Amino acid sequence: MTINHMNLVVPNVIETATFFERHFNFKIHKTMGEIISVLHGEEGFVLIISNFPKTATFEYPADFHIGFYQPSKEKVFELFEKLKSDHVELPQEPTAIRDRFGFYFYIPGKILTEITCPVE
Fold it and tell me: DSSP states of 14-75 as a string?
């Protein structure tokens, strides 16, 4: 079984969709104003960013997060520096995380995000 899509609810659909496109190689496939944006990722994964009127107020649980693997420490640092140069708030430098190496930060929409790679 393969997960093929996920819906993330955010206060600003355009801002969050654009962030995924710019930093995580997603391509915006379709956008309907500030209600929904459908993005296509690598390997056929579909990411839906939405803010339907019925879900206008929300909050993710404290430990909820998404994660992106990188193939090496160099790629982790490369993404960290790109985010930093785009003035993304990064509360920590890349470091050891359990049996991985990486960092956490919040993307627009207050979604905790983990960037990691295997420890070499």
Answer: HHHHHHHHHHH--EEEEEETTTEEEEE-GGG-EEEEE--GGGSS----TT-EEEEE-SSHHH
User: Shortest CA distance to 117 belongs to which of 104, 102, 98?
Assistant: 102
Q: How far apart are CA 87 and CA 84, in angstroms?
A: 5
Question: Which residues, in sequence order, are bridge partners of residue 30?
Answer: 38
CA distance 11 to 111: 11
Q: What is the pLDDT of residues 96-105, one digit of tens each?
A: 998 999 999 9
List CB contacts of 51: < 8 A, sequence separation 6 or more.
Answer: 9, 10, 11, 12, 13, 34, 35, 36
| Cα distance between residue 15 and residue 119, in whole Å | 32
Instruction: Note the pLDDT of residue 67.
Output: 94
CA–CA distance, 43 with 40 (Å, rounded to integer): 9
